[in-house]
Design brief:
The complex is a heterodimer of chains A (about 230) and B (about 600).
Chain A lengths: L7 H6 L15 E6 L6 H9 L1 H5 L4 E6 H7 L1 E2 L10 E6 L2 H12 L6 E7 L7 H14 L3 E6 L10 E8 L3 E2 L2 E5 L3 E9 L5 E7 L4 E8 L16
Parallel strand pairs in A: 1-6, 1-7, 2-4, 2-5, 5-6
Antiparallel strand pairs in A: 7-10, 8-9, 10-11, 11-12
Helix pairs in contact in A: 5-6
Chain B lengths: L5 E4 L20 H12 L37 H4 L14 E7 L1 H12 L10 E7 L2 E7 L1 H5 L8 H7 L4 E4 L2 H14 L7 E4 L3 E5 L10 H15 L2 E7 L2 H10 L4 E2 L5 H5 L11 H9 L5 H6 L2 H7 L9 H9 L15 E11 L6 H15 L1 E12 L4 E12 L2 H6 L14 E13 L13 H16 L4 E6 L9 E5 L19 E13 L6 E6 L2 E14 L13 E8 L4 E7 L11 E7 L2
Parallel strand pairs in B: 3-5, 8-9
Antiparallel strand pairs in B: 1-10, 2-7, 2-8, 3-4, 6-7, 10-13, 11-12, 11-13, 14-15, 16-17, 16-21, 17-18, 18-19, 19-20, 20-21
The chains are: A alpha/beta (about 230), B alpha+beta (about 600).
C-alpha cells in the first residue's frame, strides 16, 4: 500500500484515485457518526489522523458525556499512542460538553479537541456546530465530534463521516487472530470536495484510504454542504 | 470604582499592612439597621441549614515559602506555619483580643426563630427551654418573665410548672445552638479575620490591627454590640491584651471594658475569682481560703500558689489561669482555619444582591497585593457577609499559581449565582486561601504567554465550572490489572504527561468502567466461546487470539480472587472486543467461570 504522506488538501484536490493518506492538515470541525456504541472503529480512525497533533506534544482535550462514557467506555491510555497527553472531561449535559469544547478551542496550548455526544440533543444545533467550526478554524485547532445513536441532522461540520468496522486483515503469524484493523469510511458530506466511500486502515502518516467508491449525488446536494444529509 | 466605597487590604495581625484605597465608611446606620430588622422579621425560619460550599480538593497543601518577601514578619516563626496563633516568642501583651459573651444565647435564638414564625410569646409570658436530665426534664434557659416569676436554670421542669402553671416549655436544642454559634462566629469575621468559638456561649476575636478600620477600639465594640442587638442577641463585650482578661472583663467587668497592657492589672483586680475560668470546686476552695478576687490571688506569693496547685489541671489551677490572664502564658485565638494572608474587601453603602459588579475591582486589588509579595493564588474564595448574620462563599482553585485579575474573575463566571444573598449583603471579601511563590519570569522573547500557563488557565476554567473531579488526566499506576494500571488524577494537581514506555501486549483503546457480564456458548470449555450475548445482542466470534492470563495481585486482592484469561476477539459484525473469563473451567470447588466484556479495540 502506498503510504507516503500527502496533506489532506492535496489528497482532496484529486478526488478520483484512491486516497493514499488523510491527516488533519487543515484544522476544522469534523463529525464522525458511529452506529454502534460497541464499535471502536471511530476512535481508532480518529487517532490515526491525529499523528501530527500527538507528535507536536500538545495535549488532547477529550470531552465525554456520561452516556457515551458508559456505553462506549472510557479512554484507556495503554491502548492509545504512547506520546499522547490527555485531559479528560466528563460532563452530564450536552451543553456543558459543547461549552468545554469551546473552552478548549480558545486555548492555544491544546493540540486537538475531541468531543463525544450521545444522541441528538437540542443544544447541538446548527448554531452550536457553526460556532465550533469557526473557532476551530480561527485558532487552527482540529475539533472532532463523535456522535453515537445520532441522526445526521443539520450541521455546520466541514466533514461528516460515518465510520464502521470491517473485518480485519489476516494476522500473518496466526490465521485465527484478527490482524491490522480496517474500517468502512463513508464521507457523506464535505466542503470543497466530493463525498466518497473508502476502505480505511492505519498508515504511517495517517489514515490510509483505499478502494474509493464514487457517490451518486444529485445536482443540488453538491452545492450546499450544510444541508441535511442521510 | 463607582459604587464601592472602599477596597483595601484587611490588616492582619503581626504583618505590615497596606492601605490600598480610601478610608473606611462606617457601615452601621440606624435607618438601614431598622430596615434590616424589618426584613428579618418577614424572613420566616432562620436559615441555619446553610452548608459551607465544598472546598476544591488540592492534592498537596501549599504554604507560602521561599525568597524574601516585601511583607515582613516580626516573629521568628511564621504564624501561618504554626497554624494556631501567634508565635510564642512575641510579646504576649501586644495582641488585642475581643471576647463576646452572648447572654442567654439559646433563649435569644429561640425567640428570634419564634418571631420569624409570628409565634413570639408576649413579653410577660414565662418561657423556659428544657432538656432531658437524670430525673426528668431540667430547665436550661429562661426568659425575663420567667426569671421574674421565680423560675431558674437547673431546676426540674415539674417543680417550675408547679410554681408557675402558665409557663411555656420548649425543648432545648443544644446542637442547633452550637451550630448557630459557629455560623455567627464565621459572620463576625466581617470585623476581623481571626475569630473562634469560645464555648459554650461566647466568641473570641483577635482584632489586632483591625480596630482602626472601624474608628477605634471603643467604636468597634459599639458597632459589634449594636449589630448584634439588632439581630436580637444581648452581647457583652470586652477588649484586652489576653484571652483570659477579655473573657473575664466581658462577663464580670464593666460595660464594653477596654484594657490596655498598662491598665490590665488595675481593671482585672476587682473581678471575682470565678472570672479566672475555674471550675466551681476550685472557686469554692479559693473562697474558703479567703481569696475572693483576682487581686487577692495576685497578692499571694507565686511560690505558695505553685506549691498548692502544682499538679492541678488547667481549669483547677488558679496560677495557670492567672498567667494566662496576665499574658505570662500564651493563649492564642484557636481559630479553626488560619486567616488568609492575602485578602481584599469591598464595603458597600447599602445591602445588595449581586456581587458580580464588584468582583473585577476586588480581583485587581488582590492581584496587586499578590504581585507585591511575589505570590500567586492557588485557591480564591469570594465571601459575602449578609445582613441577617449569615455567610455565603464560593471557592475556585487554579492549577498553577496565578495573579492575573482577568483569569481570577473568569473563574467565578456563572458561579456567583450559587451564592445565596438572602436580603442582601454589604461586605464582600476576596481571599487568596492558598498561595504559592510566583516570580515574574520572561520565558520567551516574542511576548506571547507560554503554553503551560494557557493550559493551566483552561483547566482552571473547566474545573471551576464543571467541578474539579470531572477534569482529569491519566496517571500510571504500578499494577498489571488493566483497570488498576492507571488512575485518573485531577488535572488541577497534575499537568498532562506522556505515558511511560511499556513493552506491552496489545491493549484496547477504550475500557468499560465496569466489566459487563456476557453469557457464552462454548465450543470447547477451555477455549474462547463460540457465541455470546452482550447488551441483549447475540455475537458470534469469527476470530480470536489469546488467552492472555492476568493473575490477581496477591498483595492487594482478597484471598480467593481468581485469575483472568483475556481474549481479543472479532465478532461477526467486525467489532474487535476484549473479553475475559474469571477462573478456570473444570475447577470442581467453584461454580462455572463467568465471562465479562472489558474493552473495545479499534
Amino acid at each position: 500500500m502506498n503510504s507516503h504522506f500527502i496533506p489532506a488538501s492535496d489528497a482532496f484536490a484529486n478526488p478520483d484515485p484512491d486516497q493514499p493518506s488523510l491527516s488533519l492538515a487543515e484544522p476544522t470541525l469534523a463529525e464522525y457518526f458511529a452506529d454502534n456504541a460497541g464499535d471502536g472503529g471511530v476512535t481508532a480512525f480518529i487517532f490515526e489522523q491525529l499523528h501530527a497533533v500527538i507528535a507536536s506534544g500538545k495535549p488532547l482535550l477529550w470531552v465525554q458525556d456520561r452516556m457515551s462514557q458508559r456505553e462506549a467506555g472510557k479512554p484507556y491510555p495503554p491502548g492509545l499512542p504512547q506520546e499522547l497527553k490527555m485531559i479528560l472531561v466528563t460532563v452530564s449535559r450536552p451543553v456543558d460538553a459543547l461549552w468545554a469544547m469551546e473552552e478548549g478551542l480558545h486555548c492555544d496550548a491544546i493540540g486537538a479537541v475531541l468531543g463525544e455526544v450521545w444522541g441528538d440533543p437540542a443544544a447541538l444545533d446548527f448554531t452550536a456546530t457553526k460556532r465550533l467550526a469557526m473557532r476551530s478554524e480561527a485558532r487552527s485547532i482540529p475539533a472532532l465530534l463523535v456522535r453515537r445513536a445520532a441522526h445526521p441532522n443539520l450541521s455546520a461540520a466541514r466533514q461528516r463521516w460515518r465510520i464502521a468496522s470491517l473485518p480485519a486483515r489476516l494476522d500473518p503469524d496466526d490465521n485465527r487472530a484478527p490482524g491490522e484493523p480496517l474500517w468502512q469510511a463513508d464521507l457523506f458530506r464535505a466542503r470543497g470536495r466530493a463525498p466518497g466511500q473508502w476502505v480505511a486502515g492505519p498508515g504511517a502518516q495517517g489514515v490510509t484510504l483505499a478502494h474509493h467508491v464514487h457517490m451518486k449525488l444529485g445536482p443540488d446536494t453538491a452545492q450546499n454542504d450544510t444541508r441535511a444529509a442521510g | 470604582m463607582t459604587n464601592m466605597t472602599a477596597t483595601r487590604m484587611l490588616q492582619f495581625p503581626g504583618r505590615r499592612t497596606t492601605a490600598l484605597a480610601a478610608p473606611a465608611l462606617r457601615s452601621a446606620s440606624g435607618a438601614r439597621l431598622s430596615q434590616v430588622r424589618r426584613m428579618m422579621d418577614q424572613a420566616g425560619a432562620p436559615l441555619w441549614g446553610m452548608q459551607p460550599a465544598l472546598m476544591a480538593p488540592l492534592s498537596c497543601s501549599i504554604r507560602p515559602s521561599g525568597p524574601a518577601l516585601p511583607v515582613t514578619q516580626r516573629g521568628a516563626a511564621d504564624p501561618l506555619d504554626t497554624g494556631d496563633g501567634p508565635a510564642t516568642d512575641r510579646d504576649a501583651l501586644s495582641r488585642r483580643i475581643v471576647s463576646m459573651h452572648l447572654k442567654d444565647f439559646a433563649m435569644a435564638r429561640w425567640l428570634r426563630w419564634a418571631a420569624a414564625r409570628h409565634d413570639a410569646p408576649p413579653d410577660d409570658l414565662p418561657v423556659i427551654l428544657a432538656a432531658e436530665g437524670a430525673h426528668g426534664p431540667v430547665v436550661t434557659a429562661t426568659n425575663r418573665a420567667a426569671i421574674l416569676a421565680g423560675l431558674h436554670v437547673g431546676a426540674r421542669v415539674v417543680d417550675m410548672r408547679a410554681l408557675c402553671p402558665q409557663v411555656r416549655i420548649v425543648r432545648a436544642d443544644p446542637d442547633g445552638d452550637r451550630a448557630a454559634l459557629d455560623k455567627l462566629m464565621l459572620w463576625t469575621r466581617r470585623w476581623c479575620p481571626w475569630t473562634a468559638v469560645d464555648d459554650p456561649d461566647g466568641i473570641i476575636m483577635d482584632t489586632t490591627g483591625s480596630d482602626h478600620l472601624w474608628g477605634g477600639e471603643a467604636a468597634l465594640l459599639r458597632a459589634i454590640e449594636g449589630t448584634f442587638g439588632v439581630l436580637g442577641f444581648d452581647a457583652r463585650l470586652a477588649m484586652a491584651p489576653t484571652h483570659g482578661a477579655a473573657w473575664a472583663l466581658a462577663r464580670y467587668g464593666s460595660l464594653r471594658a477596654i484594657a490596655t497592657p498598662e491598665t490590665l492589672a488595675r481593671l482585672t483586680a476587682p473581678l471575682p475569682a470565678r472570672a479566672l475560668r475555674l471550675d466551681a470546686n476550685t472557686v469554692l476552695l479559693l473562697q474558703r481560703l479567703g481569696l475572693k478576687s483576682v487581686g487577692d490571688l495576685v497578692a499571694v506569693p507565686r511560690a505558695s500558689l505553685a506549691r498548692r496547685f502544682a499538679r492541678a489541671a488547667l481549669w483547677q489551677n488558679p496560677l495557670l489561669r492567672l498567667d494566662q490572664l496576665q499574658g505570662r502564658k500564651p493563649e492564642p485565638v484557636n481559630a479553626r482555619d488560619q486567616p488568609p494572608r492575602f485578602a481584599v474587601q469591598a464595603r458597600l453603602p447599602e445591602p445588595v444582591q449581586d456581587p458580580t459588579p464588584y468582583l473585577p475591582d476586588l480581583c485587581v486589588a488582590l492581584c496587586e497585593a499578590l504581585a507585591q509579595a511575589g505570590h500567586g493564588a492557588r485557591q480564591v474564595t469570594v465571601t459575602v457577609y449578609r445582613t441577617d448574620a449569615e455567610v455565603s462563599h464560593v471557592t475556585a482553585a487554579t492549577a498553577r499559581a496565578s495573579r492575573d485579575p482577568g483569569h481570577l474573575r473568569r473563574l467565578f463566571d456563572d458561579r456567583l449565582e450559587r451564592i445565596n444573598p438572602g436580603f442582601g449583603f454589604e461586605l464582600i471579601t476576596l481571599d487568596a486561601d492558598t498561595t504559592e511563590a510566583l516570580q515574574a519570569v520572561q520565558s520567551d522573547l516574542n511576548g506571547r504567554t507560554d503554553d503551560g500557563a494557557a493550559l493551566a488557565q483552561m483547566v482552571d476554567r473547566l474545573s471551576a465550572k464543571l467541578g474539579p473531579g470531572l477534569v482529569c488526566t491519566p496517571s500510571a499506576h504500578a499494577s498489571h490489572i488493566p483497570e488498576r494500571s492507571l488512575v485518573w488524577a485531577l488535572a488541577l494537581s497534575q499537568a498532562p504527561r506522556q505515558r511511560d514506555q511499556l513493552a506491552c501486549t496489545q491493549r484496547p483503546l477504550r475500557l468499560l468502567d465496569t466489566p459487563e457480564e456476557i453469557h457464552v456458548l462454548y465450543a470447547i470449555p477451555e477455549g474462547p466461546p463460540v457465541q455470546f450475548r452482550w447488551r441483549r445482542m447475540s455475537h458470534r466470534i469469527s476470530r480470536f487470539t489469546g488467552p492472555e492470563r492476568i493473575a490477581p495481585e496477591w498483595w492487594n486482592d482478597r484471598p480467593g480472587t481468581l485469575l483472568r484469561d483475556y481474549y481479543r476477539i472479532e465478532d461477526d459484525s467486525s467489532r474487535r472486543l476484549w473479553i475475559y473469563r474469571v477462573g478456570i473451567y473444570g475447577d470442581e470447588e467453584r461454580a462455572p467461570p463467568r465471562w465479562f466484556m472489558h474493552g473495545i479495540f479499534g
